[in-house]
Each structure stands twice: as structure tokens, then as C-alpha cells.
Amino acid sequence: MTIKFRTGVIITLLATGALIAVVPDPAPEAVAAPVELPNAELLDQNGAPVRFASDVAGNRIMALSFIYTDCQTSCPVVSGIFSKLQDRLGDKLARDVRLVSLSIDPATDTPERLKAYAERFHAVPEWLWLTGEKAQVDALLKGLGVYSADYANHAPVILVGDPARGEWTRFNGLSSPDTIAAKIDELLNARHEKS
User: Fold this and answer.
1) DSSP 5-22
2) What mean pLDDT is predicted for residues 114-141?
3) Which residues fall within 8 angstroms of residue 7, CB to CB, at 6 or more apart?
4) How would you label 42-55 residue by residue, b for 16+ Cβ within 10 Å and e otherwise?
5) What is the C-alpha to C-alpha distance for residues 90 and 85, in angstroms, rounded to an integer?
6) How large is the average pLDDT for residues 29-43?
7) Distance CA 184, CA 97 (A)
8) Average pLDDT, whole number, for the chain?
9) Can you tell me the mean pLDDT for 58-86?
10) Could you give the C-alpha distances from 137 to 39, 93, 121, in angstroms and in order?
11) What is d(CA 181, CA 17) in angstroms, rounded to the nearest whole number?
């Protein structure tokens, strides 16, 4: 399936509201990912300053998506996947897991824009939406291994990891909420086995 055709299908499904019921690629590529967590200075969707490594990552298992609010292709799909994921995580989200959506277009995506965008996906307060100065965001994207000079043509990527143990998986392509939740549970279980 070509990228152009797939994009057309996604746009059509978005327009009909049927996309979330569709499971994208049945087996998206998932690979171990080398990740560095710079302590970038960012702003959350409420305009509060946060440091990525210390305040956001902390000691929680993380699932990260990379979006921009003007995106009409993969970003709404990925945000829809995270919306379903937050429902599956339940109270784990309040205790052990952090969902993060990082803007890859910080020049446009102010905290106010991110907050309005988050409301479209019924994001709970524990799901953080981050932006900041371009230099800080770019340094973080490079550390996470997802930087693209042409943000409008970025690939849909989701990172799931345990910052405390340095174990990260990169999902290339559109993954189902169940696939991501299973990886999060695997990381949580690995923590409990070591304690």
C-alpha cells in the first residue's frame, strides 16, 4: 500500500469518524530504541514550566507520541490511539504510567493550542501535552531519536519505555492501543520482578 493511498484512506476514515474502530497495520515494526533524556525546559498544556527528564519522565513508565496540531494525517490517528490507551490504562495512569504528546511544531503549538487539541481527544490531566522553545524541543527530539527537519512529513512513531531502567521500544507505524498497553504492562512487570 503506497503512502499516498494510505494517507487518503486515513483522511477518509477520519472524515467518517470510523478510524478509531479500525486497527491499523496488524504488526507494526517495534524495535529496541537507544534514547537519551535531556532535561529540556518545556511548557505543558496549562503553560506550566516543566523539565523533561526530572518532572515529566521521573520514575514512571512512559508512552510518547509526536504530534502537531495542524496535522491532518497521522497525528489525529496517533492521538486517537492514545485516547483509547488512556482508557485501557485506568488507574495505572495516575500511579505508574505517563502519557506524553510532544509537539514537533513548537513555533505554532502554544500551550493554549495544545490544550484545545487535547480536549478533542478527551485527554485526562495525567496525559501531558508539551511544547517549548524550538531549540529545547529539537534537542529533546534528537535525544529521543525522532527528530525530522521536515516535521510535516514525519513518520508516525510511538516510544514506550522505562526511564529508570533505560529500556525503550520504538513502534514505527500505527500501533493498536492493546499493543502499546501490553508493552507498558511488560515494563511494569519487569520492575516488580526486580523489586
Assistant:
1) HHHHHHHHHHHHT-GGGS
2) 97
3) 73
4) bbbbeeeebebeee
5) 9
6) 88
7) 8
8) 87
9) 95
10) 10, 24, 23
11) 23
| Angle 187-51-113 from CA coordinates, rounded to 5° | 95
Handedness of CA 48, 53, 56, 59 (dihedral sign): negative
DSSP code per residue over the chain: --HHHHHHHHHHHHHHT-GGGS---SS-EEEE--------EEE-TTS-EEEIIIIIITTSEEEEEEE-TT--SHHHHHHHHHHHHHHHHTTHHHHTEEEEEEES-TTT--HHHHHHHHHHTT--TTEEEEB--HHHHHHHHHHHT---S-GGGPPPEEEEEETTTTEEEEEES---HHHHHHHHHHHHHHHHHH-
Mean pLDDT confidence for 67-82: 95
pLDDT at 58 > cutoff 80:
yes
pLDDT of 118? 98
Give the residue among 182, 183, 157, 184 at the shortest CA–CA distance from 171: 157
As a whole number, mean pLDDT of residues 124-140 equals 97
Whether residue 183 contacts residue 85, with contact meaning beta carbons closer than 8 Å, is answered with: no
Structure confidence by residue, pLDDT tens digits, 95-107: 999 999 999 999 9
